[in-house]
Amino acid sequence: MPPPGFDTVLVHLYRGELGRSDRWRNRLDNTTNWALTTAAAVTSFTFTSPEASHAILVLGGFLVWTFLLVESRRYRYYDLWIRRVRLIEDGFVAAILREEPPDMDTLRELADLITRPRLYVSFWDALGLRLRRTYAPILSVLTVAWIVKLVMHPTPTKTPSEVVLRAHIGIVPGSVVFIALAIGLLFGVALYLRTFLRPLPRGELRPRPRPRLPLEALFRRPLTGGRGAPS
Fold it and tell me: Which of 36, 49, 63, 47 shows the shortest CA–CA distance to 147?
């Protein structure tokens, strides 16, 4: 049997963990908003005038990647707090709704998270997941806008070699710029595809694995009808 005050402690813990996970969720939204604002600003400014440099789009892409790195770090901490919330919901709240005693195995896992806090999502998993969920469309728009800018401004090009020449940034030749961006593009695609081979974190909408009960235990389990009355 749970000790006295068990329900009160879990209720207050649930409220605290839910508030903390909500704050970290807002931090994720903030970096996403920064990335969207930056992408919209550099795209609008670049196409305002044909003489505007395409380097502004390249700079915007680097800023978006920076926001992605920051958001990946924040996502790792968000997963830590939402993982605790999910354990309380699965082991305590759901058990009450099913009119069952608390799942002590789940609550022991929660106690282990509290006594030995650690990050469960690796940096690369977090980076790939945020890229797949949010940043891939933003970076795709910037890449397409950069290519269109090179092709159309200040005058439409006629050959691919002319596009490469226009891609220069200061003393950096256009071919070097294209190679660097192609490497970054291949890295992003590989990171995007890697997420499909990795399992979702426990904090995501993924059911927690539950132990299977033996067949005789299912038959011995009491059936209830209505508000806990025996059927």
Answer: 47
What are the CB-based long-range contacts (under 8 Å, 24+) for 7-11? 10/88, 10/92, 10/107
Q: What CA–CA distances, in Å, run from 221 to 1, 106, 214, 215?
A: 18, 20, 11, 10
Domain borders along the chain are 6-201
User: Would the pLDDT of 205 be above 80?
Assistant: no
Burial 67-96 (b: 16+ CB within 10 A, else e): bbebbbbbbbbbbbbbbbbbbbbbbbeebe
> 195 and 132 in contact (C-beta within 8 Å)?
yes
Bridge partners (DSSP) of residue 224 are 230
Mean pLDDT of the chain: 84
Share of the chain residues as helix, strand and coil, in percent rounded to the nearest 5: 70, 5, 25
For 124, the 3-state DSSP assignment is: helix
Evaluate if pTM is beyond 0.90: no
pLDDT, tens digit, for every residue of 60-96?
A: 999 999 999 999 999 999 999 999 999 998 888 888 8
Q: With contact defined as beta carbons under 8 Å apart, do 209 and 203 qualify?
A: no
Tens-digit pLDDT profile for residues 186-196: 999 999 999 99
